[in-house]
């Protein structure tokens, strides 16, 4: 009788392990490039978006430019992972796995003619990876996240529609500011060159 109970418990344990191993690929999306860059990320299904949210970007990434958008009353704070900034500085290229985070803030007019952020509205993450040959977007893909880091949308249509305007900058509006930040080590500040934007 004791042996039967022991065998039943053993079988239950083995079954639990098998179930856990079976369902784990559907619950976790692992990105080795992201892991090697040294920051954690919010897990979302690859079917929702292959572009993951870097949880600790405030600590691990470099704030390279603040962009004022007076027409829409929005301030954008732009961040890039440090290894990609170093690569851009050294050889003027983005490595596979480069990630840019854009915070969009509601803003009020400051006394020095600059906008002052008042509230974080959204986060947009843009990632470049070798093999992501997206039409009219180079190797970049984008995702829209809420301030809490929850995925809002992984749809590429509106992102591509805007970024094709700057295909000569590797589809990045802030590439000149990014190059200046890489060269000087200083956070840049500028007004947007474009009057309107989907990203608010």
From TrEMBL:
List the InterPro entries hit by this protein, alphabetically: Cytochrome_P460, Cytochrome_P460_sp
Name used for this protein in its record: Cytochrome P460 domain-containing protein
Tagged with keyword Transport: no
Q: Cite the Cytochrome P460 domain residue spans from the record.
A: 54-174
Q: Does the keyword S-adenosyl-L-methionine apply?
A: no
Q: Which Pfam families does the record associate with it?
A: Cytochrome_P460 (PF16694)
Task: Could you list this entry's UniProt keywords, alphabetically sorted.
Answer: Plasmid
User: Could you tell me which species this protein originates from?
Assistant: Rippkaea orientalis (strain PCC 8801 / RF-1)
| Annotated signal sequence range | none
